[in-house]
Amino acid sequence: GFSSGTAPAFAVAHRLGKRVLQVCVVGMRPVFNVSEQAPAHAEEVFGVPSPAEFKALTDEAKLEGIASAWVPALKPFCGLPPNKWTPGVQAIVTQFSKLYGLRHYPGYSTNWSRAFGPSPPSLSVPLVAVAGGAEEPKGERPEKMAGWAAMTSAAFESHTVEGATHMSLLS
Length: 171
Fold this sequence. Notes:
Blueprint: H1 6-16, E1 23-26, H2 41-46, H3 51-55, H4 59-69, H5 87-100, H6 109-116, E2 127-132, H7 142-145, E3 156-161
Parallel strand pairs: 1-2, 2-3
Helix pairs in contact: 4-5
């Protein structure tokens, strides 16, 4: 899974059990294994502990968070009123608003326990974590990906793509 897709990929792999041969997570820290060094990503980036509080943020605050963590190319639009944004910037903020505003979005530390209980599950298949070496400080830096090691009883590999930003991990 990539970015926000890592939590669903992990959940599906857990559900399928031994039918899964390996899991690869790209560009997202494990939100169920949070620490001071790697807090839940929505909480670190947007400074709010829940989807309800995220929804209350202004679009300008949402854009600031997106640009500071995952899409630095949006930084020139920060500080501008939304009526000065391009349609593409408006669409990005709209999509993030929908995703991070979902009641069960896994980017908040309280939401993962709703799905799996107080103890996160562990996989019994090899797990590979890939991070971008040029991720923004609030983004999915390699050190924030290290928590995935505790999520499998099998082999764990961590890889950093030097020079890659969050979005360039897709190419």
